[in-house]
Amino acid sequence: MAVYTQVSAEALSAFLARFDVGALVSAKGIAEGVENSNYLVDTTDARFILTLYEKRVAADDLPYFMALLDHLANAGNPVPPAIPDRDGRLIHELEGRPACLIQFLSGVSVTRPTPTQARAAAEAMGRMHASLSGFSLDRPNSMGVETWADQLARCGRDLDGIEAGLFDRLSSALDRILSRWPRHLATSAIHADLFPDNVLMLDDRVTGLIDFYFACTDIRAYDVAVMHGAWAFDGTGRVHDAEVGDALLAGYQSSFGLSDDERAALPILAEGAALRFLLSRAWDWLNTPADAMVTRKDPLAYLRRLDFYQTHGATIFA
Ligand SMILES: Nc1ncnc2c1ncn2[C@@H]1O[C@H](COP(=O)(O)OP(=O)(O)O)[C@@H](O)[C@H]1O
Ligand SMILES: N[C@@H](CCOP(=O)(O)O)C(=O)O
């Protein structure tokens, strides 16, 4: 579940009164998601998403995220911008939390993407990257390559409680990745977490790209690598779906494209992306009680991807 902060009907009505959005009809907590509290809000005028930002999203980063969404929406991408209040303000406070009222987008996220859906989603990422060439704000990647050594150290030998020998395996993987990291590649604003649950679709059409709260400036092709790891495997990371992976690369190629250098770097970028999600999941695994309201995501599903990319990366991205 992802409703950490309860919002009273009185507080929500008073909040909505700052906007030209009609009066409150209903509000329901949304179970999906892990980072923030989200509500589906219906008013007499329309439907909205109300997001209250919890501890993982720094309030200081919100202007960057909102500017990015605004830029992308203005360029015609299916992303949900924040709704301004009557004074033009996008970022508010509600129940003691930073909060935004966000445009509702229709569609559902797919759990087992088909090649056609993967292609459409990657095309949408390519169009998003094309739109971002003129976006000038910067946000360092708070989960980027420069942070992985610290993330590994803070998990430490507790990792061996998840799987015997895991700390040493990840230390070697990190050394390998750091020594090959393609720092020369083009950077841009990227989504950095475009998993299937962050893409809304109706049949084979992309209706929404959401959850930009890891967006940052980083190697642009790293976004493709993150997407590959998230889309082209089953949930356990045991089964690689080459058709989905190929469709994804073809989709991105058709709307934006990879240079020869970017394509050649995909194996190591994919290893890095696998390590990034492995580390964050491992930290959560070690620090979230098993009976917490939030479902812990399996870190080993990303160890399997890391192993796969080390062995087969050069072949599948050739
Ligand atoms: N703009 C939106 N339009 C429609 N549904 C949305 C929108 N934003 C979020 N949602 C719904 O809320 C869920 C959680 O949102 P998300 O941003 O992924 O949360 P979290 O940041 O907590 O992971 C999504 O899976 C989706 O169902
Ligand atoms: N995609 C990450 C976790 C981030 O969760 P999100 O709901 O904000 O996308 C993972 O699967 O480890």
Describe this structure in words.
- The protein has helices spanning 9-16, 62-74, 115-131, 148-155, 166-180, 220-231, 242-255, 260-287, 300-316, and strands at residues 24-29, 37-43, 47-52, 92-94, 97-103, 187-190, 199-202, 205-209, 216-219.
- α4 packs parallel to α8 (260-287).
- The protein is 42% helix and 14% strand.
- The chain has nine helices and nine strands.
- It has two domains: 9-103, Phosphorylase Kinase, domain 1 (2-Layer Sandwich); 115-316, Alpha-Beta Complex (Aminoglycoside 3'-phosphotransferase, Chain: A, domain 2), CATH 3.90.1200.
- By secondary structure, the chain is an alpha+beta fold.
- It has a five-stranded antiparallel beta sheet with strand order 1-2-3-5-4, with helices on one face. Strands 6-9 form a two-stranded antiparallel ribbon. It has a two-stranded antiparallel sheet with strand order 7-8.
- The longest helix is centred in the last third of the chain and has 28 residues, at 260-287.
- Bound molecules: adenosine-5'-diphosphate (ADP) and the ligand N[C@@H](CCOP(=O)(O)O)C(=O)O.
- Adenosine-5'-diphosphate binds at residues 2, 30, 32-36, 38, 49, 80, 102-105, 109, 197-198, 208, 210-211, 213.
- It comes from Sphingomonas rustica.
- InterPro entries: Aminoglycoside_PTrfase, Homoserine_kinase_II, Kinase-like_dom_sf, Pseudomonas-type_ThrB.
- It catalyses: L-homoserine + ATP = O-phospho-L-homoserine + ADP + H(+).
